[in-house]
């Protein structure tokens, strides 16, 4: 959720314009079912403003372009994490992010604000081949940039994936329930998670989630899914990347994705069980209970050591 503190903006605005034209051509090729909703189509964001989100603005310091070269993963787990949070990455690798024929887990980072030296991150990337880094500052305010980076990477480097999940590193993910759940889900234009239907912008400047009327003049947000973790059909990665050229930047990454979905005419779907009736994406923290967790896809806020203990 996140916007200032970025750097590396030395590229000319023409680069952003080229990306816009390329994405427009892509969607023309995909056909009318993949074009944005005419009723919600906004004007293109000026190139000078769009470059903060444009993948062409930044360069890869670490990349894994071959991760999908010889495979078509059923589910790609996209995990945003700070450069210095190695313990969190190791916790994911030992639990729901462990290597599997159907699943691929990748960690997305920006530049450290001063903590873990870059050398250590490079050593970790060589050891695990699962870290992708671009040269923007890795701050809370820049999570929208990171989210668009993930969408673009998936569209460019893993286009044959079936589904993807954007999920934080402190989340319990029940992949043994999630994968079967997805097998009966739509393969295109699908996104699910903890759906928020009554979101409104916070106008209090002291709020962590402050959004000014200049950034977002409307009084309510469209439907969106909580950024703690959501799952989408992989075709949406390119479509959301395209829609971002029509949506001005706001520092709320989950809301921003919702705004892109509105441009596309895509509404998030609920994922619920009926016996008992509950949301399968539990964004609250719950004390571990084997029976309860077995029937949930996601539970929020665990330390790496807690995640490893639960996984046993």
TrEMBL record:
Its EC number is 2.4.1.-. Keywords: Glycoprotein, Glycosyltransferase, Golgi apparatus, Lipid metabolism, Membrane, Signal-anchor, Transferase, Transmembrane, Transmembrane helix. It is an enzyme of class 2 (transferase). Pathway: Protein modification; protein glycosylation. One of its GO terms (cellular component) is Golgi membrane. GO terms for biological process: lipid metabolic process; protein O-linked glycosylation. It is found in: Golgi apparatus membrane. InterPro entries: Glyco_trans_31 (IPR002659). It holds the Pfam family Galactosyl_T. It is a single-pass type II membrane protein. Transmembrane segments: none annotated. GO terms for molecular function: N-acetyl-beta-D-glucosaminide beta-(1,3)-galactosyltransferase activity. Belongs to the glycosyltransferase 31 family. This is Hexosyltransferase. It comes from Tetraodon nigroviridis. The lineage of its organism: Eukaryota, Metazoa, Chordata, Craniata, Vertebrata.
């Amino acid at each position: 959720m996140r916007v200032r503190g970025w750097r590396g903006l030395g590229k000319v605005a023409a680069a952003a314009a080229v990306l816009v034209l390329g994405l427009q051509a892509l969607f023309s090729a995909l056909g009318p079912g993949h074009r944005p909703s005419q009723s919600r189509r906004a004007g293109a964001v000026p190139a000078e403003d769009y470059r903060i989100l444009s993948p062409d603005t930044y360069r890869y310091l670490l990349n894994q372009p071959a991760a999908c070269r010889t495979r078509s993963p059923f589910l790609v787990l996209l995990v945003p994490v700070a450069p210095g949070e190695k313990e969190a990455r190791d916790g994911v690798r030992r639990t729901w992010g462990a290597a599997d024929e159907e699943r691929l887990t990748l960690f997305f980072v920006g530049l450290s604000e001063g903590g873990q030296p870059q050398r250590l991150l490079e050593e970790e990337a060589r050891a695990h081949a699962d870290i992708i880094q671009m040269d923007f500052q890795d701050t809370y305010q820049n999570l929208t940039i990171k989210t668009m980076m993930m969408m673009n990477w998936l569209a460019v480097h893993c286009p044959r994936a079936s589904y993807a999940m954007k999920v934080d590193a402190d989340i319990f993910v029940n992949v043994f329930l999630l994968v079967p759940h997805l097998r009966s889900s739509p393969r295109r234009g699908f996104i699910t998670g903890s759906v928020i239907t009554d979101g409104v912008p916070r106008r209090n400047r002291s709020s962590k989630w402050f959004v000014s009327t200049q950034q977002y003049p409307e009084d309510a947000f469209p439907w969106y899914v909580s950024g703690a973790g959501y799952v989408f059909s992989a075709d949406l990665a390119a479509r959301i990347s395209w829609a971002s050229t029509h949506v001005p930047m706001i520092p709320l990454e989950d809301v921003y994705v919702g705004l892109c979905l509105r441009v596309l005419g895509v509404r998030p779907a609920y994922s619920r069980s009926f016996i008992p009736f509950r949301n399968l994406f539990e964004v609250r923290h719950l004390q571990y209970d084997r029976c309860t967790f077995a029937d949930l896809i996601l539970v929020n806020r665990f330390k790496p050591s807690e995640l490893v203990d639960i996984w046993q």
